[in-house]
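ok so I'm stuck.
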Amino acid sequence: MCTFVRSMDYTLNIHGQLLNLTTPRVMGILNVTPDSFYAGSRQQTEAEIAARARQIVAEGGAMIDVGAYSTRPGADTVSEAEEMGRLRMALPIVRREAPGTPVSVDTFRPAVARMAVEEYGADIINDVSGGHDGGAFGGTQTADADEMPAMFRMVARLGVPYILMSTQPDMRHMLLTFARQVQQLRDFGQKDIILDPGFGFGKTLEQNYTVLRDLQQLQLLELPVMAGVSRKRMVWQLTGTSAEEALNGTTVLNTLAIERGAAILRVHDVKEAAECIRLSTAAAI
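replied:
not stuck anymore, here's the structure
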């Protein structure tokens, strides 16, 4: 039997404005890529990007996560210049169509993070690398054990909230690694840190569900947790369907994540996730 874990009284400092996470929030996905794993999330033209930004806000999204490099297994490598070019096209449109909505940029490259924040005022950096130069594709740490990883140094310098993802396969190793990385970030002056357990990254199907089962243990670190299970393989592989048919399963897992303390749901389907939060929190009162 699952016990509802109420979110702690978290706030994020978004360029001087506080975003309260006591009630979970929805982060809507906006991919400016031709090959993201879920075809419905791909927006490449100016009109498509504008429409998607408006949709996220209208359906209850509190944040927009813009990605220009697909992290799906087998995705094509994208150069740093190409990633920057896609973001330079998309970010002004998102800002215009969703003024006042915090914008997260999904990148593992420090130079791309700097460009997004300094040129376009990006509010959050969502990093799937965990401080590794290969990003979601693996690779080695960008610094030795006595130094900050390059992305850690960059986000601390930029002064924006940072989403730190884990590729660890179980909660014990995840907690140990997160604790060390959070201390590194704190030592360098990073203020707002969000933990992402990394569903689908470095984990088998069974390990993904074990991490979800134990998700409430991340509350030990007293930081907000973001759950990103939306239409991922862990949903449709178990049900024998596809990413296109994974909305119902995604909603089930989003509900479980909220019950286990998730403060942010990163999703493709914003309306359904917002309803999930509203119903789950009402039932927990």
